[in-house]
């Protein structure tokens, strides 16, 4: 809308400079009269102080034309229509040229806000290359981490085997020491049992000898007792016989 307003304003500026608005109103439609009054009001507003040139610029500054123009309207029909409304031929041509220029500038401004097919294909190729590069980087990173994990796994496995062998060696060493101690203890116990058996045998023999000696002594004492008893009986018998003889 701003482009169209600027077009009508610039197109009617020359026309209004040649004749007053009252004379123009006779051969124009109500819409064109409204546009004329609007353009004059904007012309007056433009004469007032405005912002610096850095913040406001003309529509022609938005686009740098490349010399290739495409006519979006039927310029001849537009000129004929303006002439039919009472616009002079040169003014109608100026208005038509201004409208065509503004439309082309607007089209170029709109075209600059879009991306061409070639640029889109180029961007897609760049994105695909970036994606493939990212995939390769991810794959290489995964392979690197996988190789690191494999090395760490092999290292851990080697350490575990080493620890297992050391533990087995220590277990065998402790088992051998315990076996040796058990053998030594068994030999000592065997020696002690042999010594006790020998002592028991010697005590048994000693007891047997003492028992035989006591038995022999008892036999000798028994013979002595029998001998003394017989001697006593004989003496008593002799004394008795002697007493009987005396008494008789």
UniProtKB/TrEMBL annotation:
Protein's name in the database: DUF1640 domain-containing protein
Keywords: Coiled coil, Membrane, Mitochondrion, Transmembrane, Transmembrane helix
InterPro entries hit by this protein: CCDC90-like (IPR024461)
GO cellular component: membrane; mitochondrion
Source superkingdom: Eukaryota
Cellular localization per UniProt: Membrane; Mitochondrion
Gene3D superfamilies, alphabetized: 1.20.5.340
Pfam family, one: CCDC90-like
Transmembrane segments: 225-247
Gene source species: Amborella trichopoda
């Amino acid at each position: 809308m701003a482009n169209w307003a600027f077009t009508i304003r610039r197109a009617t500026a020359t026309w209004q400079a040649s004749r007053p608005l009252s004379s123009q109103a006779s051969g124009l439609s109500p819409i064109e009269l409204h546009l004329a009054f609007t353009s004059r009001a904007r012309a007056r507003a433009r004469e007032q102080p405005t912002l610096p040139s850095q913040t406001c610029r003309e529509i022609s500054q938005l686009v740098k034309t490349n010399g290739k123009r495409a006519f979006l309207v039927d310029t001849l029909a537009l000129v004929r229509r303006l002439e039919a409304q009472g616009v002079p031929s040169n003014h109608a041509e100026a208005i038509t040229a201004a409208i065509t220029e503004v439309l082309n500038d607007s089209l170029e401004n709109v075209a600059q806000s879009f991306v061409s097919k070639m640029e889109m294909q180029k961007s897609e190729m760049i994105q695909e290359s970036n994606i493939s590069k990212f995939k390769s980087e991810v794959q290489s990173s995964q392979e690197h981490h996988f190789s690191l994990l494999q090395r760490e796994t092999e290292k851990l496995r080697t350490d575990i085997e080493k620890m297992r062998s050391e533990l087995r060696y220590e277990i065998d060493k402790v088992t051998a020491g315990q076996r040796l101690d058990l053998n030594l203890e068994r030999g000592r116990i065997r020696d002690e049992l042999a010594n006790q058996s020998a002592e028991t045998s010697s005590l048994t023999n000693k007891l047997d000898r003492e028992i035989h000696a006591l038995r022999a002594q008892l036999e000798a004492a028994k013979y002595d007792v029998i001998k003394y008893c017989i001697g006593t009986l004989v003496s008593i018998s002799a004394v008795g016989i002697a007493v009987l003889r005396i008494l008789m």
